[in-house]
């Protein structure tokens, strides 16, 4: 096999290139929650990944400028919530800067290890934070969590993020 000498529309690596490419990548939508001193925080994440099965590990990215970062930076446990297609409004609330994310109509309770658990999600996990790895120009962290407990029994179909919008699966 030989490489084509004409790379066509190939572009030099840049933040805009990365954003353009990942607009083509459909991702599941999750909400990450944490709590410290009775103050719950949370944010919408499309960077959630399953890292390993044994031990069970997940990862996600967070900007250090995020309002949730000071709590995520210090907390021992976080919640991971897989959203359903019926939860576009919840995803938007947790993505919006300055929103009262845990006020009505958000339904939640304090779960294992004091982690805020959102009601009505497809599945949730509580994870112990095992690492916070610097990424980018030191303005992001990759958080690695070891799964402690969870519940996969929610009903519905997953919410996706594609082309800058929340979407449902098509039949």
Task: Tell me what the structure shows.
- The protein starts with 14 loop residues before the first helix and ends with a strand.
- A hairpin with a 5-residue loop joins strand 7 and strand 8 (116-118).
- The model has no long low-confidence stretch (mean pLDDT 91).
- It has three helices and twelve strands; from the N terminus they run αβββββαβαββββββ.
- The strands form three sheets. A seven-stranded antiparallel sheet has the order 3-2-6-9-10-5-4. Strands 1-11-12 form a three-stranded antiparallel sheet, with no helix packed on it. A two-stranded antiparallel ribbon has the order 7-8.
- It is mainly β and 171 residues long.
- It has a single domain, classed as Roll (Pnp Oxidase, Chain A).
- It is 13% helix and 43% strand.
- It has helices at 15-23, 69-74, 88-95, and strands at residues 27-28, 30-36, 39-45, 49-53, 56-63, 77-82, 108-110, 116-118, 123-135, 140-151, 159-162, 165-168.
Quick take:
The protein has 171 residues and is mainly beta. 13% of the residues lie in helices and 43% in strands. β7 (108-110) and β8 (116-118) form a beta hairpin.
Class by SSE composition: mainly beta
Run of helices and strands: HEEEEEHEHEEEEEE
Taking the alpha carbons of the first and last residues, their distance comes to 37 Å
| Major sheet description | 7 strands, antiparallel
Helical run tally:
3
Q: What's the CATH topology label?
A: Pnp Oxidase, Chain A
The portion of residues assigned to helices is: 10-25%
Mind telling me the CATH superfamily name? Electron Transport, Fmn-binding Protein, Chain A
Shape: globular
Count of beta strands: 12
Strand order of the largest sheet: 3-2-6-9-10-5-4
- CATH class membership: Mainly Beta
Unreliable segments (pLDDT under 50, ≥5 consecutive)?
none
CATH structural architecture: Roll
């Amino acid at each position: 096999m030989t490489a084509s000498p004409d790379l066509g529309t190939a572009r030099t690596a840049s933040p805009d290139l990365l954003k353009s490419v990942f607009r083509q990548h459909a991702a599941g939508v999750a909400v990450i929650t944490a709590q410290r001193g009775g103050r719950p925080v949370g944010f919408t994440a499309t960077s959630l990944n399953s890292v390993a099965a044994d031990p069970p590990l997940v990862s996600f990215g967070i900007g250090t400028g995020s309002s949730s970062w000071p709590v995520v930076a210090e907390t021992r446990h976080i919640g991971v919530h897989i959203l359903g297609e019926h939860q576009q409004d919840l995803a938007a609330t947790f993505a919006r800067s300055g929103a009262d994310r845990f006020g009505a109509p958000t339904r939640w309770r304090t779960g294992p290890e004091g982690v805020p658990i959102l009601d009505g999600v497809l599945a949730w996990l509580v994870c112990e934070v095992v690492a916070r790895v610097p990424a980018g120009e030191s303005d992001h962290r990759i958080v690695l969590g070891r799964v402690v407990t969870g519940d996969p029994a929610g009903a519905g179909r997953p919410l996706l993020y594609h082309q800058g919008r929340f979407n449902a699966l098509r039949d």
